[in-house]
Amino acid sequence: RRRREVAALGAREDALRQAEQQTAQARGGLSEAEARLGQLSPAAPSAARVEEIFFRPGEWAAANAPIMALLPDREVKLVFFVPEAEMARYRPGRTVGFSCDGCAAPGSARITWVSPRPEFTPPILYSKGSRDRLVYRVEALPANAATLNPGLPVDVAPLEADQ
């Protein structure tokens, strides 16, 4: 009878406690490994395109040195110049239409910034026809930024006065 009682009592409670401790230890090891992985291979903070790669696999980089340059889609913008005579129509918040070579369809962009000061026409201005000598720089965020390549020349449709 004593042997049966000892066999029935056994080390079940001790074995359960030991298994729970091993599980907690394994969870701690997993969280440590995940933290180390996050430090060694960080993810981009948002969807972005790779603009430039400074170091390739196998090359050594100094601590805290950038490995690559990223351009988030939300930072792709249209930059165009508006003649002084039409400047009053262009205000932040308004929408302009644009097209580009190779674009499937015309796009739209919301104006985010208009220069408060005029400047002279840049020496290289990708546009059709002639421009006035005094222009204002305008920046707009396109709706389809992920499909546009930075530096791509675009044709911006002039805004109408009653828009």
Q: How would you portray this structure in words?
A:
It is a single chain. 23% of the residues lie in helices and 28% in strands. The chain is an alpha+beta fold and 163 residues long. The chain contains two helices and eight strands. The protein starts with a helix and ends in a 7-residue tail after the last strand. The chain has helices at residues 2-9, 12-40; strands at residues 48-53, 68-72, 78-83, 95-100, 107-114, 119-120, 134-142, 154-156.
What's this model, at a glance?
With 163 residues, the protein is an alpha+beta fold. Helices cover 23% and strands 28% of the residues. The chain has three domains: 1-42; 44-73, no CATH class; 76-156, Efflux pump adaptor protein, beta barrel domain (Elongation Factor Tu (Ef-tu), domain 3).
List keywords for this structure.
28% strand; alpha+beta; six-stranded antiparallel β-sheet; 163 residues; 2 helices; 8 strands; elongated; Elongation Factor Tu (Ef-tu), domain 3
